[in-house]
## 1
Amino acid sequence: MTTETKTIGIQSLQLGLNILDILAMEKKPLKFTDIQNLTAMTKSNLYKYLSTLSQFGLIYRNPHTNAYTLGHKLVQLGNVALGQTSLIEVVIPYFKKITEKTNLTALLAVPSKKGPLVSYILSADYGINIGAQIGTHLPVSSSTGIVFSAFEKDVFMKEWEEDFYRKCSMRVNGSSTKRKKKKQEGCFLPLKPNL
């Protein structure tokens, strides 16, 4: 005896959302026939869906090429969703799992004008514990700073590097005492990986 599990939901809404998924996954403008081939919908039904999605700004049809792309309304909705969701609330369960499995401290840093800013820390009960506090700006030469410098766009990176070199304006050439002093001040910027 087989039991069928039915999905609860509005099928027409699911079809419309499927069209949005297809446009997102293809990552290029699609013509009507492309979408029809990917959805296996009839022409008349697909036309109705595309018209409705266009009316709400969820998709855009280029009048010159007749190709469809995702619309501006999705960007607007995404920005509102980002504003309503706290990144920290999202990462806490994952940080707990990481800390439980590794017995290490997990740290969340976000970009700021002064460098990576520690926003959340979940300390391990034992093992290696990070000596940072929430609100601390990490230097570019820290491990977190290096990761940020590898992926951060020029907006913050240029300011971080200028600030870093301003602090380390004196060239270290000679004595090992000067080198040690500059190293203690964190003035040795590691090489950035070329990505």
Note: Residues 111 and 117 are 6 Å apart (CA to CA).
## 2
Amino acid sequence: MLEKPIYRYIGTGLIVVGAMIIVVAAVIACASFYGYRIPEFTSPSLEETITKLMYTLVEITVRLGFLGVMVWGGGVLLKYGIESFKIEAKEPTFGIEYR
């Protein structure tokens, strides 16, 4: 009975984990998009309004950065998972084959 090489299991695991991370990032992005409410800037002074606006922009930037890192990490895991399956494929032969 032939056993599968270990890189086959590792590749499958990397693909599953990478896909799960990307799906979780997409779900978080959709939930944030549909659940986001624009804050009301009703302060009497311009300084307070600008400060609240800056806090809002920083919060959005941090969320987008976190989602970007999640998708990047999931993409890297998918890449190496797929490459581990390519190891199993036969290498191409170059030149003329003689029989």
Note: The CA atoms of residues 13 and 64 lie 27 Å apart.
## 3
Amino acid sequence: VNGDQAALVGKEQHKSAQSLLEVCAELCGQHRLNLYQTPKRKTVEKHGRDLQDIIGQQQGKRALEIAAAGNHNLLFLGPPGTGKTMLASRLCDLLPEMSDEEAMETASVASLTQ
């Protein structure tokens, strides 16, 4: 179930459970969880989008650079068609790759929403 998250730990094999009850049964010796091959850790591809492709929007581009460099939050406000989504789509290409610890923390938060 959480094979992608297990890949963050760095083990070649992992046991996966559908529920906490299955984990408890495994720990009590009442049930055996199967071993699975852990998938290789996924790397995020850069989309090749560049801030230089955006004409104008100097303040928005500067805000993106500052937010990415300083790990700050960013909120774009404005009417439809002013470039908010276009600017926001460039942010992921400015950010550095996550460390293993950051990836684990992000995966933990993401798993709570599933």
Note: The two ends are 11 Å apart (CA to CA).
